[in-house]
Amino acid sequence: MQIYLPIAEVSVNLFLLLGLGGLIGVLSGMFGVGGGFLLTPLLFFIGIPPAVAVATGANQIVASSVSGLFAHLRRKTVDIRMGWILLIGGFAGAALGVYLFNVLRALGQVDLFVTLCYVLFLGVIGALMFVESVRALRRSGRGKPARQRKRGWAQALPMKMRFRTSGLYISVIPPILVGFFVGILSAVMGVGGGFIMVPAMIYLLHMPTKVVVGTSLFQIIFVTAFTTFLHATTNYTVDVVLAVLLLFGGIIGAQVGTGIGLRLRAEQLRILLAVLVLAVCTKLALDLLLTPSELYSLGPPGES
Predict the structure, then answer these.
(1) What parts of the sequence cross the membrane (predicted)?
(2) Residue 297 lies in a domain
(3) Spatial distance between the Cα atoms of 36 and 116, rounded to a whole number of angstroms
């Protein structure tokens, strides 16, 4: 069953869109990521123009993240104070990111830039997460406790604050910087930034994994909502029909994903997320390097 998307100006299978939304919702509930790192490239693959995919993908992330967050709030695995600190940097980063996106779109280089960003960040983050997760899984398999990382630079900086849910007493500067960087990625790449934020919160801020997922979703909701608003009012690239279909599938999928995530160990969750990240990175890299099946496009310039 085909449905026409007015802003994207393409027709897409209705059930395919619902399925994509559900898949992203499952990832959101399992890993604490918005799922945009997978959703946006998948929208590219089915013919959605990159500018529309980025702006609308950010909108879908809000709903799937809200659904997953409620499940974590019931289990008291959300550090609200840390979430608000992350938001301070996130809002500033999102505003800067939308400005950069507009400049690149005016130059006609947004498609290439977004794809290159995906290949670079997904490749680096996925490889690092995979290696670390395999090591942690091997140690736990031999009955050895996970190594306790030394708390260094984040504790040495000024402006410290106590985060009781995470059991931390650290400077607010590192969380603000993490939020700022993720805000830029959210605006430029149409992602919630969870694939960056989750490992950053674990390996840089040393937050417990069980708290990281819910706190990541808390920050993602507000930053992606702000990003969507900016895109809608400056670029007019948010396709409401596409967003509603993705939202419907995402809300249901998030509840399923949360249940699955609670049944898996932290090391298993991280290694599964790393494999997904590397798979998407490989697909995007191949699309850049291999000769396309169709060398010409009938679409308008910059919207191929």
Answers:
(1) 12-38, 44-71, 83-101, 113-131, 176-204, 211-234, 240-262, 269-290
(2) no
(3) 15
Across 32-36, 40-44, 283-287, least confident range = 32-36
**Is residue 304 domain-resident?**
no
Average pLDDT for 223-236:
78
Residue 116 lies in a domain: yes
| Separation CA 295–CA 177 (nearest Å) | 42
Non-local (6+) Cβ contacts of 289 within 8 A are none
Contact 278, 123 (CB under 8 A): yes
Give dist(CA 203, CA 95) in Å, integer: 26
Q: Give the separation between CA 240 and CA 226, rounded to whole angstroms.
A: 16
Across the range 189-217, mean pLDDT stands at 77
In whole angstroms, how far apart are CA 37 and each of 21, 46, 278, 295, 298?
Answer: 13, 15, 11, 26, 27
Q: What is the residue range of 169's domain? A: 12-143+152-289
Question: What b-and-e string marks burial along 125-142, b requiring 16 or more CB atoms within 10 Å of the CB?
Answer: bbeebbebbeebbeeeee
DSSP state of 47: T
Total number of domains in the chain: 1
Radius of gyration of the chain (CA): 19
